[in-house]
Design goal:
The chain is an alpha+beta fold. Helix content is 36%, strand content 19%. The radius of gyration is 32 Å and the shape is elongated.
Amino acid sequence: MNDTTTTPQTEQHTFQAEVQQLLHLMVHSLYSNREIFLRELISNAADACDKLRFQAISDDALLADDSELHIRVELDKDNNTITISDNGIGMSRDEVIENIGTIARSGTRQFLKNLEQKDVDQSQLIGQFGVGFYSSFIVAEQVTLETRRADQQADQATRWVSAGAGEYTLEAIEREQRGTSVVIKLKEDAEEFAQDYRTRSIIQRYSGHISFPVQMLHTPAKQEDSDTEPSPEWQAINDTTALWTKPKQELSNEDYQGFYQSLTNDHKPALSWTHNKVEGKQSYTSLLYVPEQAPFDMAYNRDERTGLKLYVQRVFIMDAAEQLLPRYLRFMRGVVDSSDLPLNVSREILQENELLNKIKSAVVKRSLDMLKKIGKDQEKYLKFWEQFGIVLKEGIVEDFGNRDAVADLLRFPSSKTENGELTSLHEYLERMPEEQEHIWYVTAENPKTAASSPHLEWFREQGIEVLLMGDRIDEWVMGHWHEYAGKSFKSIAKGELNKDEKPEISEDDQKLIDRLQELLKDKVQEVRATNRLTASAACLVVDEHAMAMHMQMMLQQAGQDIPASLPHLEVNLEHGLVKRIAETADEQFDDLGQLLFEQAVLSEGGQLENPAEFVQRINRLIA
């Protein structure tokens, strides 16, 4: 909130700058997706009803004499308005300002950045960021919101009005009914949304599985023996029965997909799902989905985990992903409904609840089993892996108990795969010669750098397969993962290779190595002859258990303090450049020696400390 102007009746406020930017983009960028405003407002109303139902468990006075929670959509073609109302928890005046006048979410700037892009589906972004209320301005000439919290008096209600042009007004009003009403004065070109058939079809498509009745006015047919015109009555147009409570044999794929889309606001269908009911000492139902597409920030935002909803006896308790799933499965969506947890359960109780720990263990197992089943379809699994593979890898470090199951799900490009094909570790072992002791791999900052690493040269010549790990997370993972199926992992870029087959070094070769060692003593631990290069002049090698060079550089750039660890420079004594350096006079030796080191850094995908000096050195050598 910025400027405030007060009159005896109303207060006028200016939207936060980011809200103004958001409103502008909503109006001008989402014209082709206008109907999503109904999906978002009904979803908000359902959340308000869920919150009230949960709070009423400990304070039934909140429901008063109105315990049938519902959402109503009313159309007025004469005045060109549509009203979405609920009798949920409602908002106080301060909550209205906080929730509508400002955007407190940390991801708003990234949301706005993505919304401006032409090649993304903006309607999908809205669902991810919870800024759906503002979508009403796609179709609205003016929006009026009236609300009262369930625990406040009738004279403590608030009216909020805005035309979406940068300002809004607040007014204290009386409102007998708790909850919220949003009245949208439609633009002239949005009159279609005041048509009954159009609005019903949108609601049934997007909100058909909302767990509260979404009602619209319906006029019954006139009775033949009556002179009285029947009065309109409210009629639910959605199926309010919790889908997960129905027997699986009664549900179609369309039912499951429809519920997924109403649950997640995802415009794309789910990739797969599993529906299970457990009865016995502990009774619960789980309906788990794997999405087809990941949110834009899933790989790096490990704290935003609201994909799995916890119900107790069909009463929504909370978005409890952290209690039900580990972080590496944060892409999962769905519901878990327990019959045995207490209705007044709190987050503190959840963290210590033994029953929930057992449910969590079962949910993790079912999730991994579902991914294993998807893995039998290579094309389908490739879609999954491209979206969520980098997140799933975290399970190697975070879930020791399920490490083998997670490992079986991992896929990598390798030195023997082509055209983007991936291999599993099981497939790697099947191709591996019996006498091979290690699973060889190389990590790099990105896939292209991994595939072009000079460390691969000897292995390609020998026909030895190497896994190419090009995600930034890979070096962290491999630091905690040492063997699979009895075979140890070994990096081709760490430690000495074939210690028993070191290259022969002549007296002149040793003089060159000594000169390079003196020149580069501040940059490398040691200069030594290599037996791992066949085409490149030099490469950098770190100690057996040291952090890879690209990871060291990345952490340093991020301001992290890491122990100093200089690499070894291995030189190919048969390479033309190295032979030229050996024959070079003192005045050019320094430039060529530094260049040898710098090209090794660049081959690792690293950055030079002084690029300008590198350019000057190249120019001197050319001249």
